[in-house]
């Protein structure tokens, strides 16, 4: 994976995701948590679960399953 973590502080960038209240967690362009504080462990658990549930397509990695915990 090419892991990358971005910290957005410009309100215009944040609103582009439809987020009005921070903090928020966005994974691959999908807002998965907003207006609640996740612990580092909760964020890691979410991301690990989404990676574990993703499809294994072709030679690369499939799309993350953002609904894996529902």
Q: What key attributes describe this structure?
A:
alpha+beta; two-stranded antiparallel ribbon; 2 helices; globular; 70 residues
In a nutshell, what does this entry contain?
It is built from 2 helices and 2 strands.
Tell me the strand order in the biggest sheet. 1-2
Q: Specify the number of helices.
A: 2
How much strand content do the residues show? Answer: 5-15%
The chain-level mean pLDDT equals 77
Counting DSSP E segments of at least 2 residues, the number of strands comes to 2
Radius of gyration: 13 Å
Instruction: Identify the overall geometry.
Output: globular
| Secondary-structure content class | alpha+beta
Largest sheet: 2 strands, antiparallel
Low-confidence stretches: none
Report, as a whole number of angstroms, the end-to-end distance.
25 Å
Order of helices and strands: HEEH
Proportion of helical residues: 25-40%
Question: What does it look like?
Answer:
With about 70 residues, the protein is an alpha+beta fold. It has two helices and two strands, in the order αββα. Strands 1-2 form a two-stranded antiparallel sheet. A hairpin with a 2-residue loop joins strand 1 (about 25) and strand 2 (about 30-35).
């Amino acid at each position: 994976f090419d892991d990358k973590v971005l910290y957005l502080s410009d309100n215009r960038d944040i609103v582009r995701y439809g987020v009005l209240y921070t903090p928020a967690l966005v994974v691959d362009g999908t807002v998965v948590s907003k207006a609640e504080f996740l612990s580092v462990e909760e964020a890691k658990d979410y991301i690990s679960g989404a990676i574990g549930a993703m499809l294994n397509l072709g030679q690369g990695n499939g799309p993350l399953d953002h609904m894996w915990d529902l």
